[in-house]
Amino acid sequence: MNIAVDARELSGRQTGVGRYLGALLEQWSTSPDARRHQWRCFAHERIVVPAAFHDSVTILPGVGGTRWEQWTLPRALAPDRPALLFAPGYSAPLTAPCPIALTVHDVSFSAHPEWFSRREGARRRIVTAWSARRARTVLTDSNFSRDEIVRHLGIPVSKIRVIPLGIAPSWRLMADEGLPRPREPIVLFVGSIFRRRHVDKLIAAFVESVAGRVPHSRLEVVGENRTYPLADPAVLLRDCPRDIAARVTVRSYVDDATLRDLYGRASVFAFLSEYEGFGLTPLEALAAGVPSVVLDTPIAREIYGDAARFVDADLSDPVPLAHALVEMLTDAPARWAVLAKAEAVLERYDWTRTAAQTLRALEDAAGT
Fold first, then answer.
1. What CATH number belongs to 169-346?
2. Most buried pick, 24, 40, 138, 229, via CB within 10 A?
3. How far apart, in Å, are the Cα atoms of 67 and each of 120, 128, 292?
4. Cβ pair 74, 86 in contact under 8 A
5. CATH 3.40.50.2000: which residues of the chain?
6. Which of 105, 99, 98, 95 is nearest to 70 (CA)?
7. In what order do the strands lie in the sheet with 268-271?
């Protein structure tokens, strides 16, 4: 079977959809079931793929935006008419000359339009809804997102397949023989910075409460700022004492080696998101032996189970958040009470299983 893949998100720095597709291709590159098929990955510029897919990459002219997706890509597909197009990132060409399997990770743009500019929000709502209706199968990462897709996009639940994401073995950084790895008093956040993730309130809690109560503590924030309206986290540090501000580091990107080092040194991971389709980075932290402080939301309960320290989703009172962060930084028994639940949760998330289930969904969508 010939399977085409919209692989635009593998260009440049891989985050979000790019990491999702990259992990699938990595698994498929060594899977006998996947190797039975012929793959062709389309992108607008050079992309990084496993060696097994090097000969399957086709670069099409354009900048990789909506015009490329809706005009350039379907015309490139027309001569060969593949059995299926896999679109891993919310939207697909409406005139594709083949069936489509589409992944919709969340519908935040429909559930919370205030988080997006008028133009960007409208584009996402319209194109994603049309793409989901056009697709033969819609994949998503959680039961929560399945229900949101039904509610906001009107897609029948029978058309949606829930396939949870996985955790790469490389994130398991615990010391040999299960002994605790030495930790530093570091609070870590990793992920794109959106309004819904309340990085501003994390910084405020650290500056106003945590830094003074935990000597030598630091806050490390890693993620591209994609807030709307734009909010600069550095602004929050301008009026605080210089010695406190020096203990907060905000970076838009770090390489994998630096990221693994941060996971290996941190004592607590903070992910204060009120809306996610899944939320992978707290699981990566958990796999690395770092307990997470997360908001108490339905999606967080579904994904993290008991292996997280939950705080009230209403952050108008900063005291519970500050208390939870200090507790995870200073109270070893409290930390290990969370980490003791890690294995039962982490065993649910495996990229080998995710890739196998996704491949089966693509085959079903193609009718094979």
1. 3.40.50.2000
2. 138
3. 14, 14, 40
4. no
5. 2-166+350-366, 169-346
6. 95
7. 248-251, 218-222, 186-190, 268-271, 292-295, 309-311
The tens digit of pLDDT for each residue in 237-287 reads 888 899 999 999 999 999 989 999 999 999 999 999 999 999 999 999 999
Q: How far apart are CA 153 and CA 55, in angstroms?
A: 37
List, edge to edge, every strand of the sheet that includes 137-140. Answer: 57-59, 38-43, 2-6, 84-87, 100-103, 137-140, 160-162
Q: How many CB atoms lie within 10 A of CB 223?
A: 21
What is d(CA 348, CA 12) in angstroms, rounded to the nearest whole number?
30
The set of residues, in sequence order, having a beta carbon less than 8 Å from that of 23 and lying 6+ positions away, is 165, 166, 168, 351, 354, 355
Using an 8 Å Cβ cutoff, are 335 and 328 in contact? yes
Per-position b or e across 350-363, b if 16+ CB within 10 A of its CB: bbeebbbebbebbb
What is the length of the chain? 368
Q: What is the mean pLDDT of the chain?
A: 94
